[in-house]
Specification:
By secondary structure, the chain is α+β, with helices and mostly antiparallel strands. It is about 40% helix and about 20% strand. The strands form four sheets. The protein has a seven-stranded mixed β-sheet. A five-stranded antiparallel β-sheet has the order 12-11-15-14-13, with helices on both faces. It has a five-stranded antiparallel β-sheet with strand order 17-16-20-19-18.
Length: about 575
């Protein structure tokens, strides 16, 4: 899609938000554009700007548009293995943990026409005593589609929607009315349907079980994160979240922990655990007591990390081999004022940190200090300035250690790069999975529409066949020859009397122009009268003409014409009655 088309589409989305208060900002653009374009194709509109103008002048189009965008593909016990797990493992835990409370609160988001909400009612009714269920269970079923919510409140479904419902549950919780099933009133009263936008509206609170199946996949990553945060707020501590099979985002979320990842059942993580922080472990501290013994001197000199010692007067008193090599110090620099040396301010300002260590009497750490060595190498150092105390507790100076964390930093950066690559690949995969699921639901919705159209066509075909049989029986009942002509004077019906009189079968004349037939009737004499009948003139008096029957015998034929009129409209043809007069 071009930049201009993108801008035009976003302008259309903004218009709908402003005019109707319906915000599609968080919806994924590829699937959202496909749904818009489906409506535009139905109206033969080629661009978004023209469609926006059409919406202004045809407000009723919003209803058809929303019905197209909000696919509302759902079913009872959709994804049966997942529901079996919830029924056997999750629902009993919810009931047990809520036994001390007055109410069990359940929220079904994106409920569409209500099948999933009523499925929840069925599984909880099965897990509880009837009176307990009736008094305690409240199921809040929400969606943004008002028309779907209206259907859900009625609780009437075709038999095909209940294919996954076991026969015993079907008999217990539904009433059959002809070819449809109606949810029993005692079950329907446990479900409260209402409009709610999971992106814009505040969440319902104190929820024990939240069901949101294949709803998140329509939204962008940032919108999904906002919704999940709202879901976390909505659930009680220890509450359960039940998602659809295409939604994987919680596998890496700190807000929820998986109970069964395959079935997409998760448990809320409390705020204390969700936002737990582990501080970085500090590097080893230098504990040099600056003794004058040879062993201490040797140990300090050969230490694997660079170390400096600055006394209370600010003089550099010690610098080990690693420090001299790293900062290009000479032995003659020992004994000089530390502030006069380059190492005191490069690669990091140390003079103020030394003053701080003296004043606060504790170590000061500086992380990720970058140093370019004399040979051009880039190093990363962790620096620690630690106060040094004498035996009487008096601070006599500071020890400064430089830990080379270059290797660690490189590994950390490589790990971060890998994590970003994995994150990007995961998001792309997740987006593809969700896009495929969305496309699958669109195809399923289209297939259901085609099935409905096919059923209607079959019904119309049956009606037409019955009508044709009825017409044929009427025509057979006439002893006289009867011919029905359409408005172009072509033969639509030819009864057995006509076949007997003129010698032509119905299949030989069907669709032929009546005046072109080679029969023994002087058809040219009837042309004017037939045309008059086609405009509605009824000839009460018959025409008497000389003719020749199928046996070649001359006869006198009585011909009567009558306009073919249906429902008081204009003539659709002519009925021709013919019989010998002798």
């Amino acid at each position: 899609m071009s930049t201009t088309e993108d801008a035009s589409f976003e302008a259309l989305v903004d218009f709908i938000k402003t005019d109707r208060g319906f915000d599609f900002t968080g919806y994924k653009r590829p699937s959202l554009q496909r749904r818009f374009e489906k409506r535009m194709q139905a109206l033969k509109i080629e661009d978004y700007e023209t469609y926006r103008t059409y919406l202004v002048s045809h407000p009723d189009e919003f209803i058809d548009l929303f019905n197209t965008i909000l696919i509302n593909v759902t079913a009872f016990f959709r994804d049966l293995p997942a529901w079996e797990f919830v029924q056997k493992e999750t629902v009993p835990r919810v009931v047990e943990e809520a036994k001390e409370r007055d109410a069990i609160r359940i929220w079904s988001t994106g409920c569409a026409s209500g099948e999933e909400a009523y499925t929840l009612a069925v599984v909880f009714a099965e897990a509880m005593e009837e009176s307990d269920f009736r008094e305690r269970v409240k199921i809040y079923a929400t969606d943004v589609d008002e028309e779907a919510l209206t259907d859900a409140r009625h609780g009437v479904y075709p038999a095909s929607r209940l294919e996954n419902v076991p026969e015993d549950l079907r008999e217990r919780y539904f009433e059959r009315v002809e070819q449809r099933y109606v949810v029993r009133p005692e079950l329907r009263r446990s479900v409260i349907f209402g409009r709610h936008d999971v992106v814009q509206d505040p969440p319902i609170s104190r929820i024990d079980l939240l069901v949101s199946r294949n709803t998140l996949m329509y939204f962008t990553k940032s919108a999904q994160e906002r919704i999940l945060t709202n879901f976390h707020f909505a659930l009680r501590n220890g509450g359960f979240l039940f998602l659809g099979k295409s939604e994987m985002m919680l596998a890496r979320s700190g807000l929820f922990q998986p109970v069964d990842l395959k079935r997409r059942v998760f448990l809320k993580v409390s705020h204390a655990d969700a936002f737990k922080f582990t501080p970085r472990k500090p590097p080893p501290q230098v504990r040099d007591t600056l003794t004058e013994t040879m062993m201490r001197d040797a140990g300090f000199e050969s230490a694997p990390i660079a170390q400096l010692v600055v006394d209370r007067d600010g003089t550099l008193t010690l610098a080990n081999m690693q420090a001299r090599k790293l900062f290009n110090l000479a032995q003659r620099d020992v004994g000089k004022p530390f502030k006069d040396l380059e190492v005191s301010y490069r690669p990091v300002e140390l003079r103020s940190q030394i003053d701080r260590a003296h004043a606060e009497r504790h170590s000061v750490s500086i992380r990720d200090v970058h140093l370019r060595t004399s040979v051009g190498e880039e190093r990363v150092l962790d620096v620690q300035v630690a106060p040094l105390s004498a035996a009487d507790g008096q601070v006599v100076g500071v020890g400064i250690s430089f830990v080379d964390v270059t290797r660690f930093k490189q590994l950390q950066d490589a790990l971060e790069d890998s994590k970003r690559d994995v994150e990007t690949a995961y998001e792309e995969l997740q987006s593809t999975v969700e896009e495929m699921e969305t496309t699958n639901e669109e195809l399923q919705s289209t297939n259901e529409e085609l099935e409905t159209i096919n059923d209607e066509l079959n019904l119309r075909t049956d009606e037409l066949n019955q009508t044709n049989l009825f017409l044929e029986s009427i025509l057979r009942s006439f002893e006289a020859a009867v011919v029905v002509l359409d408005h172009e004077m072509r033969v639509s019906a030819w009864n057995e009397g006509a076949q007997e009189l003129w010698g032509l079968r119905a299949d030989e004349v069907q669709g032929q122009h009546f005046l072109n037939l080679d029969i023994g009737l002087p058809l040219e004499q009837l042309r004017g009268a037939i045309r008059s009948a086609l405009v509605g003139e009824d000839h009460h008096e018959p025409f008497i003409v000389d003719a020749t029957n199928r046996r070649g015998r001359p006869i006198t034929c009585r011909v009567r014409l009558s306009p073919l009129v249906a429902d008081g409209g204009p003539p659709r043809g002519v009925i021709v009655f013919m019989e010998p007069s002798d």
